[in-house]
Amino acid sequence: MKVYYSSSFKRTGTSLQALNDTKLRAPGSGPWEEVVREVVEELYQVTSDELDGSRRLGRIAWPRQVAMALTYQYGLLSAAAVGDLYGGRHYATVYWARGQVEKAMRKDGLRADEVRLVYVTAKKRMQA
Predict the structure, then answer these.
(1) DSSP label at 18?
(2) Which of 85, 79, 86, 73 has the alpha carbon at shortest distance from 24?
């Protein structure tokens, strides 16, 4: 698998950015992408195969969108690389997922809390 690294941190002014503080990741910590994936699998009770698969059921699609959005927003991978991590999806799917997560966070406080929980849990694991 090819890994593409983004040359700059993505600051979009969206609700996803509000989750971030000044540090992207703790020095000497493991890969953000793996930690986000583990947290999403645990919190939403989905398997790695389901995240990579093509099923569009809501119980699978939403966790996949959250994982892709957080991986892209706070990781060092390009959208194409994030798409590759989640079943070989097109980079436009990653942008779509990020947009859907941002929209859901603005509309629904429970969805926003879910995304914050994934982010905070992943960030704590990175710092541990």
Answers:
(1) G
(2) 73
Domains of the chain with CATH codes:
30-127 (1.10.1750.10)
- 20-41 pLDDT per residue, tens: 544 443 333 348 999 999 999 9
**Mean pLDDT on 75-96:** 94
CB 89 within 8 A of CB 10: no
Burial class of residue 91 in the structure, from the number of CB atoms within 10 Å of its CB (0-12 exposed, 13-18 middle, 19+ buried): middle
Strands (DSSP E) contained in the chain are: none
Residues paired with residue 77 on neighbouring β-strands, in sequence order: 5
Task: Read off the pTM.
Answer: 0.77
Give the HSE-up count for residue 54: Cα atoms under 13 Å, Cβ half-sphere.
Answer: 2
- If we measure between CA atoms, which residue out of 13, 21, 44 comes closest to residue 118? 44
